[in-house]
Amino acid sequence: MTGDGRAAAPRAAGNSPRRRTARAATPERAARVTPDADNAPTAEIPAVSEVEDTAVRAKQIPEAAVARLAVYLRVLSGLAEQGATTVSSEELSASAGVNSAKLRKDLSYLGSYGTRGVGYEVRVLVSQIERILGLTRQHRVAVVGIGNLGHALANYGGFPGRGFPVEALFDTDPDLIGIPVGGIPVSHLEEIPRICAERQISVGIIATPPTAAQSVCDRLVTGGVQCVLNFAPVVLRVPAHVEVRKVDLAVELQILSFHVARRADHAEAVARNRGNPGLPGAGLPTDNGGTGDGRNGAGTDGGLGMVVR
Fold it and tell me: How far apart are CA 114 and CA 128, in angstroms?
């Protein structure tokens, strides 16, 4: 009813007030909503595994430093056997035959910087070096060529304790086939691929004559061997995924001969100059390895006894 008594006209359905109802969020509508950056959920960052971290560090280490790490490990293992718990950089570097600055640089590749006034924890450092050198798992070894050197390698008791158990021996000598050496029967070269694959050999040591080394290496690679230690005086051709280290004892002896000869020549030059005090530079050391008189850098060459300026 209206105020004057007349009936109110009914409202059209289309003009009735609409109730506000919540609308379902559509993908388009949701896309227009800007989330609260402070309260928005964040994706969990996956942690870098120890294996991944070790792999990254290993790629950053120069090969020369890797060789020194192996020396540090040998020294540290000896200290651990003696009951030592810590070692200073000076003590470790002196035992390893390197200067302390180089040692600290090498160990920094491991993420180990030591503690001032305390040094390095022996047990922790051993663990770090073993991990970076891949010594946390065993590497099974095959020796090919059971001559004098091969016999010595097969019987060496230090390999298993360092993670390199000898698991297979090979030769072509009929008198050796089937004969145990170091507790392992010798097999024929033709068996290399099969036995290496079955026993999961990862390291092959070649101690054969140079003429047989390449064919032996090929068989080892076919059997799945990934690393080769070559004592034969020959350069081996291998796939890119195979690592080769060459040990040439004759070359090492020749290098030693060079150093002995250089020292002998130097000593002879010094003795000759001392016998003739009139020569410039008699008896005084210079930074070029010879002798000098300290004037304007003049001196004698350590190997030839000639005056150089």
Answer: 12
On whether the CB atoms of residues 142 and 181 are closer than 8 A, the answer is no
292: left (phi over 0), alpha (psi -120 to 50) or beta: beta
Amino acid identity at 150: G
Is domain 141-247 classified as CATH 3.30.360.10? no
User: What pLDDT, on a 0 to 100 scale, did the predictor assign at position 57?
Assistant: 53
**Whole-angstrom Cα distance, residue 171 to residue 186?**
7
Binding residues: 145-150
Domain boundaries, the chain: 50-132, 141-247, 251-308
Question: What confidence category does residue 13 fall into, taking pLDDT thresholds of 50, 70 and 90?
Answer: very low
Class of domain 50-132: mainly alpha
Q: Which residue ranges are tagged as binding site for NAD(+)?
A: 145-150
pLDDT tens, residue by residue, 17-54: 444 444 544 444 444 433 343 333 333 333 334 444 54
* 121 vs 104: CA distance, rounded Å: 14
Residues in the chain, overall count? 309
